[in-house]
Write a structure and sequence with these properties.
Blueprint (H helix, E strand, L loop, with lengths): L6 H7 L11 H12 L4 H4 L2 H10 L6 H11 L3 H20 L4 H20 L2 H12 L3 E3 L2 H4 L5 E3 L2 E7 L15 E8 L2 E6 L2
Parallel strand pairs: 3-4
Antiparallel strand pairs: 1-2, 2-3, 4-5
Helix pairs in contact: 2-6
Length: about 200
């Protein structure tokens, strides 16, 4: 037998009182919290460790005893987290007043056009950066060169530019007889590994 318990049911089954937030407010508070980092372990403790400790040391497990146990160890955590998050909510209130349709359109264009292009078309950026580093020029491959697995040249050296995940794709049958450049996309940009 397989049972599914939804989050809403879990609240009721555990005897908790469900909090009903007005539409969009919970999402906005969550977003503010992500920016403010109000519920990080350094503020409220590592809850995934604290709750098992509570369970192991308490005979009467209930929402009330959990609240009492937690607050005895972190008496200021709720207030500190609230202050951090509410400060960010005020920042969001100020910022939302600045948003008009024109700004939303610029944001969408930036996402769909610029960020997509910059995020997906990395070959030229990588070749350009390598050429700058080596104090030489670069060019993208011709269609005929591309058919041989070449993405471009830095100076007179041919390179193939591939994502780091390409290394794990052993099932690929293509053989590329040029120097390889592997890149990894990170939140802050690209990490590039150039074959010597």
């Amino acid at each position: 037998m397989v049972l599914t318990i939804k989050n809403e049911e879990l609240v009721t089954l555990n005897g908790c009182e469900a909090v009903d937030f007005p539409k969009y407010t919970s999402q906005l508070i969550n977003w503010a919290n992500q920016n403010a980092q109000g519920t990080r372990p350094r503020v409220v403790g590592q809850l995934s460790d604290l709750f098992p400790e509570f369970e192991a040391n308490c005979d009467d497990i209930s929402i009330e005893t959990w609240r009492e146990w937690y607050l005895s160890r972190y008496p200021d955590a709720i207030s500190t987290a609230t202050d951090k998050i509410f400060a960010q909510v005020k920042n969001l209130k100020d910022a939302i007043q600045l948003i008009d349709r024109d700004m939303v359109q610029k944001w969408v264009e930036d996402l769909v056009i610029s960020k997509t292009y910059n995020g997906l078309y990395v070959q030229e950026a990588i070749l350009s950066k390598l050429a700058e580093h080596l104090n030489t020029d670069y060019r993208l491959a011709t269609p005929e060169e591309e058919s041989r697995g070449i993405d471009g040249y830095v100076g007179s050296v041919a390179y193939s530019v591939k994502p780091e995940t390409y290394k794990t794709m052993g099932r690929l049958s293509e053989t590329i007889d040029v120097k390889m450049i592997f890149y990894t996309k990170k939140k802050t940009g690209l990490t590039v590994e150039v074959e010597e």
